[in-house]
């Protein structure tokens, strides 16, 4: 599976592949404030390193969990940033549904401060002895957060913000950045909500 696309398991036990479309949006999938903490993936710094090695950051140049440095304090910073995403991103999505347990807010001065303070460093690439590209390691959490902050700033500070979406499926609050060319992605995944919608339509048509 390509890094950045995640296998998710819903409460009703359906497994599907979901592509959040950007690294910042992907971070939301790693867990969240209650009741979303039941999906928590980042319980320890090692968990976070392993999660990052399968993320969008590794999409065109892989790295391993051992290449990433995450301390306990880093983990707390990652989760603070993630919490900001939970509260702010739904408010940027036209016709977003309510997200259970989340008080959605406009980007506050404190949010903007956290976002801007996260900018600065991003992961670096360099050449190895054979002249091939590689990551300069360790990749630090500060760099990871810098990448996430820049990603989010590029989206919400431009007309790309209109490409933020929430899945249109019933009871589905998955959020993504729509990278489709026509910009008409509606579902978290076809396997999950796209399919439920098709089946729903079929049933509607055949019970008339
Ligand atoms: Zn969905």
TrEMBL record:
InterPro entries assigned to the protein according to its UniProt record, in alphabetical order: ABATE, ABATE_dom_sf, Znf_CGNR
Entry-linked SUPFAM superfamilies: Jann2411-like
Domain (Zinc finger CGNR): residue spans on this chain: 163-206
Gene3D superfamilies, alphabetized: Jann2411-like domain
PANTHER family given in the database record: BLL6575 PROTEIN
Protein name listed in UniProt: Zf-CGNR multi-domain protein
